[in-house]
Amino acid sequence: LLCPLQQEPSGVWIMAYTEIDDPSAHFQTAIWNGTGSALSVTFDGNSDLEPDMVWVKNRNLASDHRLTDSVRGTSAHLVPNGTDAEDSSSTALTAFNSDGFSVGNEQSYSRSGDTHVGWGWKESATAGFDIVSFTTSGDDENFSHSLGVKPELIIFKARASSGNWAVLGEFAETTFNNKYMVLNLTDAQGSDGSYSNPTASQFSTSNNVAVDSTHIAYLFRSVQGFSKIGFYTGNGSATAGPMVYLGFRPAFVLTKKIDGADDWRIFDNKRSSSGFNPVDKHIYPYSNGAEASSSTNSLPDGFDFLSTGFKILQASAGINGDGGKYLYMAFAEHPLVTSTGIPTTAR
């Protein structure tokens, strides 16, 4: 069998492989046109996917993001771009289906004449994603998770009270080191002093979180050939930006500047102007604004999605400031090779 070697940015050569042959069994993106009425959205990947978490956004309108998961139930949603407590609606996301989901007629989900995007994840230790609901007493506390290994990124939010979305991670260091960012703000990383390094079975919260409040947490880890959480350093080049090696062609990339105030951005393989590269359209998770697309120096403000990762195409401070540190979380469209070492077909 052919097993291609790939070179990591560090210069180390590794054997390319994947732990998940079909990423569409665990993550997919859907695009649909709103009708002003309830409708069902069907994924178009190789596998049927009944999601456990769905994040949706109206692409054309200044309208809130909505996030729903199977732990809290379809009627309950949170707003990633805001601090509001959990809300409930019978006309928002109404069902997780065997290959997609159903939505009501609200403008975030099915506004007539608008296009919408939805990202769906399947909860699975194999795919490195866990959803945990927990209640705090206001002290530094530990809570169990089911990943089986140390999570690399944790996003959590109080459900019954207003408050920011905390994002915990290593952020270019070797441990969590008490650092955090805020999903609904553009701030640089901060330091809390209470977020200890998680383990293969537990994660901690700070005594600064809401007392006697139930929270929802989304925990992620990298899975070879399917997902990767890491960071890259910008070089400020408008023509020769960094190439970020993933070991797969991405379907979704979330980025944020770590060491400065700048945008969170989401790119995916369904929303480019050309239908392929460059991937020039992005959505801001911290904002209710419509989908954005911009260019400078006649180059798109975005990425090329390649068979082994993504390449930055712009000198924008939001994704490629000279010397800037950037967090990314990426999920695969397809791996470079299958689990048996056979190369997949690159687009």
> In this structure, how is the largest beta sheet organized?
6 strands, antiparallel
State the distance separating the first and last CA atoms: 22 Å
Instruction: Indicate the percent of residues in helices.
Output: under 10%
Question: What is the number of strand segments?
Answer: 30
- In terms of quaternary structure, what is this? single chain
Based on helices, strands and strand pairing, what is the structural class? mainly beta
Largest sheet, spatial ordering of strands: 12-19-14-15-16-17
- Number of H/I helices: 2
Mean pLDDT: 89
The poorly predicted ranges are none
The radius of gyration over CA amounts to: 19 Å
Shape: globular
Q: Name the beta content range.
A: 35-45%
Account of the 3D structure:
The structure is a single chain. With 347 residues, the chain is mainly β. The chain is built from 2 helices and 30 strands. A 6-stranded antiparallel sheet has the order 12-19-14-15-16-17, with no helix packed on it. A hairpin with a 7-residue loop joins strand 14 and strand 15 (166-169). It is globular and about 50 Å long. The mean pLDDT is 89.
Properties at a glance:
347 residues; globular; 30 strands; four-stranded antiparallel beta sheet; six-stranded antiparallel beta sheet; mainly beta
Provide a quick synopsis of the model:
The protein has 347 residues and is mainly beta. 2% of the residues lie in helices and 39% in strands.
